[in-house]
Amino acid sequence: MLKNCWYIACPSRKLKNRPVARTLFGRRLVFFRSESGQVSALDDSCPHRNAPLSAGEVADGQLACPYHGWRFDCQGRLVEIPYRAGTPPDCSVQQYDCVEQDGYVWVCPGDKVPEEAPLVFPHLGLPGWTSFRMETLFAANVEACLENFLDCPHATHVHRYWFRTPTAKPVMAQVTMLEDGAVAEYFQEPREKSLVWSLLSPGKAVGMKHTDRYIAPATSRVDYEFDDGRAYSITSSCTPQDEFQTRVFTVISFRRGWLGPLVRLFFHPLSRLIIQQDVRMLALQQENIRHRGKADFKALDQDVLYRPIMAWRKALRQGGTLPEAGDQWQVELKL
């Protein structure tokens, strides 16, 4: 069931006159555009001699193999063999359903297309909001990425003084299971000095709502909303390349009115620096897991969304019963 979902292959702007290769669940796919601009996704292998079609060319909306020039249309049908006269044999390449939305090419690598449209990134293009995008390759699986993005305690160590300043103050989190995942809301969260807080957060006297949300199968969303109207939101969609690598597409949006473009000049490079800290930490973690031969985690209640993430992913992977919406519990931790 994990394969029968929408995943981002690449930003739409990257798919122009050349094919683009991407790996999902260990399978290489090739993406290209027809003459009308429609996006197509095929197996990245020519059935003749298994050369990668992504190394070929797009001509008249058709994809030509780099080895012998076999040409395929956007449905994967063989339409021409340059050195053979007459109608080509019935020899097609597997096609995958894909759509474009929010400036991304989405693909379903499974055999059953989901009824729902792909995830909508919040706040994109809304008045008063400023957004930017990032694409990051992690040497880690999807579960490790999701748990990292939605894990507050690690920020006081990995991102110390950049995103959080450790205070050891008690914080209460309430977790609620949803029909599409789970959400955690934090109460009485400390707002000590850090570079991110200084850019985006008003004074402590202004109320704040902070929620972390897991959206099945592979999306995290972090929202901060302040009583004076300021807000920022970080949404990351994870595309599994294989069991060891994940390509993450992140949209960061914040509401600062006319100051937004100015804040972005600092916030964008700062966000890249912070996410690279996570890249390095997850690479260290996964290298150690491979060295040990397996993951051997000690899960705590303070790993607030770890349990919902793993429950949902296990159910989807095994085709089991999905977690029931409505369950709630509270967790006390220090930040």
Automatic annotation (TrEMBL):
Domain Rieske per the UniProt entry, residue ranges: 6-107
Keywords, comma-separated and alphabetical: 2Fe-2S, Dioxygenase, Iron, Iron-sulfur, Metal-binding, Oxidoreductase
InterPro entries (UniProt xref): Cholesterol_7-desaturase (IPR050584), Rieske_2Fe-2S (IPR017941), Rieske_2Fe-2S_sf (IPR036922), VanA_C_cat (IPR044043)
Gene3D superfamilies in the record: Naphthalene 1,2-dioxygenase Alpha Subunit, Chain A, domain 1, Rieske [2Fe-2S] iron-sulphur domain
Pfam families, A to Z: Rieske, VanA_C
GO molecular function: 2 iron, 2 sulfur cluster binding; dioxygenase activity; metal ion binding
SUPFAM superfamilies linked: Bet v1-like, ISP domain
Superkingdom as given in the UniProt entry: Bacteria
Name under which the protein is recorded: Aromatic ring-hydroxylating dioxygenase subunit alpha
